[in-house]
Amino acid sequence: xxxxxxxxxxxxxxxxxxxxxxxxxxxxxxxxxxxxxxxxxxxxxxxxxxxxxxxxxxxxxxxxxxxxxxxxxxxxxxxxxxxxxxxxxxxxxxxxxxxxxxxxxxxxxxxxxxxxxxxxxxxxxxxxxxxxxxxxxxxxxxxxxxxxxxxxxxxxxxxxxxxxxxxxxxxxxxxxxxxxxxxxxxxxxxxxxxxxxxxxxxxxxxxxxxxxxxxxxxxxxxxxxxxxxxxxxxxxxxxxxxxxxxxxxxxxxxxxxxxxxxxxxxxx
Length: 268
Fold this sequence. Notes:
Number of helices: 3
Structural class: mainly beta
Distance between the termini: 37 Å
Radius of gyration: 22 Å
Oligomer: single chain
């Protein structure tokens, strides 16, 4: 496959309006800022608003706000978060005695060691000939920049021009067992279990919520000079100074390559 990371990130973004972290064990922190890498789809981080060095930049435009007084807020533990993009369908599992039956009429024994204790059980069917993405987060929790408190002040910092800020993240880490319609009898030491023909399967766990599979990105709202006094545009307030980030690439084909990236030259 050509650009698997960018294709996966783009598919998840279309379904959630958030950005997938292709390497969840490499943490992404709330307040990180940088630029999206057009080739890989990943965020090239250049700093963090909670770094002492950034406070110096903020003091030049706002001498009152101290970011140390507004640390990231931590949300409650949520239920399982499963993202199925277009082309992926979750099938039901039905119990019949000591066997489980999937919608595609696959049968497997409930007593296979470790399977019955799996935290998540399911069958996900991918459409033939079409790329799909599946993201499963077990009991995630969010961390985010305090809402309505600091983003307006950050808009004034010139060093954040053309930068993207991580305003929220989903964190996972609780030990999990995952069953994806297994047909074999092998269990991995991490207690992840899958039977899939997918070309790429990325997984992990950590007891201390160390993984960040999904995050939100914001960019500065371009302020246009008002040209018509009869049609005033209200000034933004608070967090409205920052808007969602759009994909910096053309539509992608099934391999993650830009469909319109080839220049066509004609001689007349």
